[in-house]
Each structure stands twice: as C-alpha cells, then as structure tokens.
Design goal:
The complex is a heterodimer of chains A (246) and B (425). With 246 residues, chain A is of the alpha/beta class. Chain A has 10 helices and 5 strands; from the N terminus they run E-H-H-E-E-H-E-H-H-E-H-H-H-H-H. Chain B is of the alpha+beta class. Classes of the chains: A alpha/beta (246), B alpha+beta (425). Chains A and B meet through helix 1, helix 2, helix 5 and helix 8 of A and helix 1, helix 2, helix 4 and helix 6 of B.
C-alpha cells in the first residue's frame, strides 16, 4: 500500500505550529512509517505534486498568497488549517482593528508600497477548509488525533465543550475570582487548560465553541462589571471579526 | 549567469536569493525577504502590559522564549521592577533551553543535509537511524527544559512581568538534571560528527556585536560590545544601530560602525571566548574554533560550541536553583509611565525590545530589533565577496554553496518579518 502524501505549508505566521509537529520527537519516526512527507519547506528542499493531505499554517495577508493557497488547494485532496493563524487569523487578527496603510506607515514609513498587505484572514475566507487543528500553537496530541482520524478515513472531531470544563476538572481556581478576565467560558476545549495551569488566563486562541451558552456567560460578565464590548475586545486578540470571532 | 533560489528551504521563514553575474562581473546580489510583514510593533499599541509578552511571543515559533524574556525585561525596566535571584536563574535556564532547542534544530535538521548530500534529514531516518534518533533525543531534552520552566516549548505561559506565574516542580528540575548529564555521550558523538564535515574555506572579517561578556558568557545584559571596541549601553541602541529599508526586502536592514555587522553564535564566541564553559572551550579547541575565526560558514561550529556551553551551564543553573530550595514568589508590579529597553542574546543574536508605557501600563509605542534583520546586510556582503571565488563551479554546486552560507546564519525570517533564490540568467 502506498503511503498517503502529506505536505506542510506556511503563510503569515510564526511557524510555531510546524515546529510543534517537529517537537513530536517520540512519535516523529513512527509518523514517517505511516505517511510520506513530501513537502515541508522548513525541513526539506524538494516539493511538488499531488497531495493527500495539506496542513496549512498561517493567515492570508498578501495578494500573492491567495494564488499560492488556491494552487495548494487544487492539488490537495484534504486541506487542514493548522493552528490559530490559519483557523481564526490568530494573533494577526489584531491587525484587523487598524487599516493596513496605517500599520505599514507606522512600522516602515510612508514610502513602502512593496509592503502592501490585506487585512489578515483565515484560510476559509479564500478556499474550502476540510478540517482544522485550533490553538496558538497547536497541541501536538491533537494534531496526531486529527491525522489519525484522517488516515483511518474518519472525520476528525474537536471537543464541543468549553475550556471551563477542563479547567474545573483540573481543579484550578476561577481566574474571575482573582479579578482577571478569562475567555474560558466561550473558548473551545482541547488544550487541557494549559495556560490556566501555568498561572495565566485564557485569551481564546482555540476560537469560539460551536454553541456558546450566552446566558450564563453574560451573567458572569455582568457580575464582573464587563460589557459585551469589553469581552469582544478581549476575543479579538486571536479571532478576526466575523470569522470564528462572532 | 543569474542564480535565483525562490523560497529558500530549511530556513525559518521565506526569502529569495538573487545573484546575477555577467562576464565574470557580479552585477547583482541580494537576499530578498518576502515574508509577509506583520506589524507587531503597531499591534502592541494600547495593549496592557500583561498582554505584551504573550503577543510578542507570537513573532516567532522558534524563539518565542527569547521574545518573551526580553519583553518582560523591557517592561520591568520601564516600571522599575527588580526580579528575584530565583527568577533570574529560571529565566536563564529557560533561555538556555531555547538556545539548545533552536541550535539542535539548526545543526541536525537544517544544516547537516547540505554536508551529507541529502535534501532533508528524513531519508536519514532509514540510512542513518542512529543519527536521527540522537538528534531527536537532544531536541527533546531542550524542549523538556522549556516545558518544565516555561510551561510549553513554543510560546511559554509561566514567565510573567515580575517573575513566574507558576514554578516548575523540584522533581521536574531534578529529572532535567539527570537528562542533561545523560546527554553528554550524545554531545560527544555530535562533536565527532561535525568534526568530519567539509566546512568550506571562506574568510571575510566584519564587525561582530553581542552583549558584553563582563558578567559571564553573554545572555542578558545592559551593555553591548562591538569587536571594533565600542561599548554601547543597551538603552542607547537606537543611537548606535541604524535600521534602514531596502526595496527588495520586507525586513529592515541594520548597520553599526561599518556597512554591516554580524550577531549570533560566531559573534558571541569571538567577543566572549574566555567566558565559555570549560567543556565548550575544549570542544572549540578540538574543532579549531578560535577568537580569530572569521569564516561565516563556521557559525555552525560556534553554534555547536554553544550547545555544549548551554548544557553545562544548565546543569549548574538547576543546582543553583534547587540548592536554596524553590520558593513560591508572588510578582509585585506597579505600572507607571516610562520607557523600558532590554536586550537578550537570542539563538540568532542580540534581540532588542523597547517600550513606551503610559500611566495605566498600556503601550504607547514599541520597537523590536531582530537578530536576522541585523545580519541581512552582512549576509549580502559575504555573498558579494564569495560569488567571484566560485564562478568556476558547476551551477548546482555554486547554488548549494551560497545556500549553505545563508543557512549558516540560521536566518529566522518569520522574526525579521522568509528565503533564497539563486537565479542564473
């Protein structure tokens, strides 16, 4: 049996998700037994051809990237958005709050037309995305679970409950009690509340759950003196408006 | 003849290399950085100090710990926050974890295929399995350091303004120490392997910049040292370093006293040779790396010497942290209006962050100067000096030689905003 052909691609982002794949040291050699990695610019020189699965990292933020993404889509049976930048625009979503010209002039000065960009968007704004691995960066275990499902011909499933569930299972104190805004109630679980375990708060990098329970969450916000605008502003750190950000 | 390498591979990010030679004359030589600009400095505007490090960590997956640590230091400088000796040691350990992570990735995954005649490490998984498993073991050790101290290998979560929001378990640090000692045979084999690589002979002297080695091998610090003799306070970096735009790059270029300068492993080794750990000095001697070394390809060897240094120092740091006992500390931070500047020796060289804060502790303006951006001018100057020496080589060999030179700098192009195209016309 021929091995499925897998490629990794990146657009605007930090390559932290591809690095997280490389960081699966224990499973990496086993992975090579199961699939043929045919493209991975960060790791190898060659590339090209038809692909069974394309894992695509990064947001789309330049005109030429739209064409490159479309070409990858055209030669891939399955396309998976890898990580927050590809899934919800990730931290690049912060740029959506300003105009592109403004941002460019501020960092590079006014005489920099070659640095033209578009407001950063997730892959799904431009091509059909079949599946996604959320998170900034992705969780290595979850990547393996998604890949395993695809290799077995099943659609991968993401947790449909909120991060609060994992936080409570870990018996962590609620960050709201410390007066700190947390996006756990509306953010998709699957990271095992890693940031909360590390003493930090949830900033929503895994995107919104499918059906957030708006009633209870509004109550939490009101009790803590927050408006919907406050919480949306928080949510914009990793989620571009209208694309997974609501 | 035009050499164009589009989307240079085995580098972190996207870049093209363009070299154009006509009748033996070099007409054009440039490294085009085509990574999409991300405008992090603007994105930080108005952000509360507690969000600044988590946002800038996302500049780069490979050096997210360095961005985090220098960001915290800049914010602490702005607020006048002093951190504890325990915090300083744990931050050093985390920084060494990241340098190891990045250097091992570069040595084994990005650089070695050039010297073993393969296009990636993947085919070696069958033909040189012991090499690949060793690479993975060393990489895992480095990641385990970052995981234990920072909470996650990529984009750490526990370092925060004023200290740490969660501490590693003492047992995790003891386990790290055991693994660090157990890694020594793997390091010996790595040194043996690199001693056999045919590193090209090419010399070009330049200006080498790092943090000053006065307090030990450069890592954190408040003063810069140029190999030309200048000592510059970190807070005055803007007066000394000139950043400028070129039409072919989305990354800014930089210069100091000369037309270009070098930061990174070779610059650090040259400026601080005497501060290397005893084992690292032995390895440097065995691999003929000296303060006088001016071959940019030997950045690779300097990187390996630093791997040895980091492992040895990490063992000491674990001991120094565990000996007095880990203490739970609650960071105390009071925001105030002010300016904070800090620098760290990231894996690829000196990394600067500077922030203006308002009285509420929100960013008014930010500036980040990235190691690769500082090296770009120097890489081009190396290429300009090298190409005329290689014109007799067959084109694929010439291209490989140029690509490996760029790779020796381990350019991190996501950071500096990605690539290499060698195009023969």
């Amino acid at each position: 049996m021929t091995k499925p052909r897998i490629g990794f691609f990146d657009f605007t982002g930090c390559e932290g998700c591809q690095l997280t794949v490389l960081n699966l040291e224990a499973e990496f050699l086993e992975l090579l037994e199961l699939v043929e990695i045919v493209e991975f610019r960060e790791l190898m020189s060659e590339g090209g051809g038809e692909l069974d699965i394309a894992f695509v990292e990064g947001s789309i933020s330049r005109p030429d990237q739209i064409e490159r993404l479309a070409a990858i889509r055209a030669r891939s049976l399955t396309l998976v958005a890898l990580g927050a930048c590809a899934d919800t625009a990730g931290v690049n979503a912060l740029a959506a709050l300003r105009t592109a010209d403004d941002l460019r002039a501020e960092v590079y000065g006014s005489d920099s037309p070659h640095l033209a960009t578009l407001p950063p968007q997730p892959l799904a704004a431009h091509v059909r995305v079949d599946h996604r691995v959320p998170g900034c960066p992705i969780d290595g275990r979850e990547f393996l679970a998604v890949l395993q499902a695809l290799l077995m011909g099943r659609p991968p499933e993401l947790p449909s409950f909120s991060l609060c569930v994992e936080c409570k299972l870990a018996e962590l104190p609620c960050t709201f009690e410390a007066g700190v805004v947390c996006l756990g109630p509306v953010t998709r679980a699957g990271c095992d509340a890693l940031c909360l375990r590390g003493g930090d708060r949830c900033r929503g990098c895994r995107g919104l759950i499918d059906n957030p329970r708006s009633g209870p969450y509004h109550r939490i916000l009101e009790e803590n003196g927050l408006t919907a605008d406050d919480i949306l502003r928080e949510f914009r750190t990793f989620n571009v408006p209208g694309k997974g950000g609501a | 003849m035009r050499v164009e390498v589009r989307h240079l591979t085995r580098v972190e990010g996207h870049a093209n290399l363009v070299v154009d030679v006509a009748s033996g004359e070099l007409r054009e030589c440039r490294l085009e950085i085509v990574e999409a600009p991300r405008f992090f400095e603007s994105l930080l505007k108005g952000r509360h100090y507690s969000d600044v490090a988590p946002i800038v960590a996302r500049v780069c997956g490979v050096c997210s710990n360095s961005h985090t640590l220098v960001s915290l230091a800049a914010t602490e400088a702005a607020f006048g926050v002093e951190v504890s000796a325990q915090t300083r040691r744990l931050r050093q350990l985390l920084a060494y974890g990241e340098i190891l992570q990045s250097h091992i990735l570069h040595l084994y995954f990005l650089a070695i295929p050039d010297y073993l005649g393969v296009t990636s490490i993947l085919p070696l998984a069958k033909s040189r399995r012991e090499l690949v498993t060793r690479a993975l073991r060393l990489k895992k050790l480095a990641n385990d350091i970052c995981l234990a101290v920072g909470g996650r290998p990529v984009h750490p979560v526990t370092p925060c303004v004023g200290g740490f929001s969660a501490l590693p378990a003492a047992a995790a640090l003891q386990e790290l120490r055991r693994q660090l000692v157990a890694a020594l045979p793997d390091l010996e084999e790595t040194v043996d392997l690199f001693a056999t690589l045919p590193i090209p002979a090419f010399e070009r002297e330049t200006e080498y910049l790092s943090l000053s080695p006065d307090g030990g091998y450069p890592l954190f610090g408040s003063e810069l040292l140029s190999s030309d003799g200048a000592r510059i306070p970190v807070r005055d970096y803007r007066l000394a370093i000139e950043e400028y735009l070129t039409p072919h790059s989305t990354a800014k270029f930089a210069r100091l006293g000369r037309e270009s300068y070098m930061v990174g492993p070779l610059a650090r080794v040259k400026n601080a040779f005497g501060q290397l750990s005893p084992m690292a000095r032995q390895v440097a001697a065995a691999l003929q790396l000296e303060p006088g070394t001016i071959n940019p390809y030997r950045n690779l060897v300097a990187r390996l010497v630093e791997v040895i240094h980091c492992v040895e120092q990490a063992i000491h740091l674990v001991d120094e942290t565990l000996l007095p006992g880990l203490r739970r500390e609650v960071p105390v931070v009071t925001a105030r209006a002010g300016v904070g500047v800090a620098a760290i020796e990231a894996p690829r060289g000196t990394l600067f962050h500077a922030y203006h804060y308002d009285a509420d502790g929100c960013i008014e303006s930010a500036d980040c100067v990235i190691p690769t951006a500082q090296n770009l001018g120097n890489i081009e100057a190396d290429l300009r000096a090298l190409v005329p020496q290689l014109l007799d080589l067959p084109r694929p060999e010439l291209t490989l030689r140029l690509e490996s030179l760029v790779r020796a700098y381990d350019p991190c192009i996501s950071c500096s905003t990605h690539l290499l195209t060698v195009d023969f016309a």
